[in-house]
Amino acid sequence: MAKRPIRLADVAVEAGVSHGTASNAFSRPEIVREEVRERVFAAAQKLGYAGPDPRGRLLRAGKVNAIGVATAEPLSYFFDDPFARVVMSSITQACDATGAGISLVSAVNQEQLAWNIQSAVVDGFIVFCIEGGSRLVDLTRERRLPFVALDYGFDDDSISTIGVDDVAGARMAALHLTGLGHRRFAVLSLQLADVTAGAISWVEADKAVYAGTRDRLRGYAEELAAAGIATNDIPLYETDNDWPSTAAGLEHLFAAPNPPTAILAMSDKVALHALDWFKARGIAVPRDVSVVGFDGVPEGLVSDPPLTTISQPMAEMGRRAVQTILGFDGTNRRETLDVALTVRGSTAPPPV
Amino acid sequence: MAKRPIRLADVAVEAGVSHGTASNAFSRPEIVREEVRERVFAAAQKLGYAGPDPRGRLLRAGKVNAIGVATAEPLSYFFDDPFARVVMSSITQACDATGAGISLVSAVNQEQLAWNIQSAVVDGFIVFCIEGGSRLVDLTRERRLPFVALDYGFDDDSISTIGVDDVAGARMAALHLTGLGHRRFAVLSLQLADVTAGAISWVEADKAVYAGTRDRLRGYAEELAAAGIATNDIPLYETDNDWPSTAAGLEHLFAAPNPPTAILAMSDKVALHALDWFKARGIAVPRDVSVVGFDGVPEGLVSDPPLTTISQPMAEMGRRAVQTILGFDGTNRRETLDVALTVRGSTAPPPV
DNA sequence: AGCATAATTTGAATCGATCCAAGATTTGCG
DNA sequence: CGCAAATCTTGGATCGATTCAAATTATGCT
User: Fold this and answer.
1) How far apart are CA A141 and CA A114, in angstroms?
2) Does residue B19 reach within 7 angstroms of strand C, measured from its CB?
3) Cα(A277)–Cα(A323) distance, rounded to whole angstroms?
4) What count of other Cβ atoms lies within 10 Å of the Cβ of residue A234?
5) In CA terms, which of A114, A229, B55, B310 is 20 to 30 Å from A252?
6) Quick check: A178 and A224 in contact, CB under 8 A?
7) pLDDT average per 10 residues of sequence, chain A (352 residues)
8) Best residue in B26, B58, B140 to probe A by mutation, most A CBs within 10 Å?
9) Phi, then psi, of A54 in degrees rounded to 5
10) What's the whole-model pTM score?
11) Start-to-end Cα distance in chain A
């Protein structure tokens, strides 16, 4: 009397037809004579059949019609992180348009992550590369499914990627500030490599393992040099993209005799933390010091003051990512999208 | 020379072992002699085998280790709607803790929705009931998997649900306002049934099809009556939970000779729209009129003024939903959680 | 009725793995 | 060296459906 789940075969027997017919009644009802179809449905009803099990179907069918979105962060990252949310929103819109579903796959635990990636039933992956991106990308590559990495921080042209023009973005940020008349800068960097170092030199910067970080630093340096500012005089502080390291960086920078009037922050998160730090210190932004972020997250709209930043085309990135998976043709696409300067309230000419 | 995908069987042949052994090499490596295991891996490598296909495994295994989250809205609802986001965040946290994955399943198109639900490879469903909840619940029920409906608006005890004590919440809102001294109220309701009617009577209200709406209305009525306010004198306006209908409702209410000093809004969304409408009209909140919302979405924290509201325990709802699915024991749970009054800046004593 | 044609139904093969009882090898030890 | 115990390997059964060529039944027409 064990309640073994009902299979299509059971229904077929009950209805007195072959499995082939029973299957057709469900998945191609039009080719089964009405009377028989009714009989099959009645049998299903009587037995409490839940309908064809997708697992069986999937095995036969090939296409899953779902795309996996992976990251090495906790799953809640997708709903808590502003950047992720905006990109996910556009990914889901693109999926809606084509009827594809979404599987969220992630885990902080390495082993669990590997397992989750290996067992995700999807047609392809979109990979959010935060930290540990390379490990995640390797895992995904193993599946030999179409996949695309978003903002992948390494030079690797064996995979599809969608990124932004970091050099150009950084130049825009610097140009905006030099245009306003600033001459004393400081850079709040993201990580150059796996370990965070605090205050660093431009020589190290140029050798950064993470390509995104390196390119942004290069952009800043180039543009500042073009404005006749000696790059080596510009203090550089590497943060962990969080509050403690940002605060530590600012302590360090503003302890110096001639503090900067302009901060180039390499992420909005760092920039927003900087705004908080300045407010706590009674330093007025943008009167005393200007801040430019990088990313363009929605939070920057409602901060006090609203954040001037370099906006990534997040919606476009999501859209293209879905296109890349759904329209995969066997070749790797490497797209570099343009960023734009968004001027809001955190920048102004330097104090006189 | 067609590039047929490599199967485990191919690898077994190449390595000169049985498929049983090849399978073990991957899924229970410890029981295979090292030398043989290496041979199998080498063969896999050589053939470009992507690892055991999860579809095959799934069919055999039973458990999927993923839970489906369904709604009849577009997929992007999960990332755009504040209520959904908070609940999803806690759902994902609970999933992370147990290593379960998440599949987002949805579609506005009815047919597509049905198909997506039928073919989702999951162990159970959490259903977000917005509108058309009953259709969605029926579809889900068909799968005969564990599932739980969030804020399901109907009386139906054949399924598991997680909801809040709407009557108590509404009473709290009303009590807060009567305690402040208000005597002239108006209610901005959500839908009573499938069609929206605009201004309605309390007699109709008591017969609302949507149980959530009905209970909140009852709560308001009870508490107001307890304060000696004649319920029938209180204007009631049914909105669509959007801007146009909210604005229309307020036009209507404030065109009356003796406009209310307190608005009971049945959702934060409506309440927030009301705040906008008052601002546009130059009516000061809370000086001229007080507003109490219902839901407790994060937006209410940053509105101007911050919204006084009845907070639903969104995180708790998410957590319990996951528990209900993962620990399903064959019985339906019907949980009603408590709500709490959150006093912020949109309420004050009435003008003298 | 007789026959060609169209509409249905059948049943075996297949999708890609895992599991397990039984058989084959190794190892340990007197 | 021989035998029991321990360790590996094997191959068939199974998970739950879909598919398709072949067989069967129905329909149309003279």
Assistant:
1) 11
2) yes
3) 41
4) 19
5) A229
6) yes
7) 76 92 92 90 92 92 90 93 94 93 91 93 92 84 94 86 96 98 96 87 91 94 96 94 96 95 97 98 97 96 95 96 91 94 98 90
8) B58
9) -60, -25
10) 0.90
11) 88
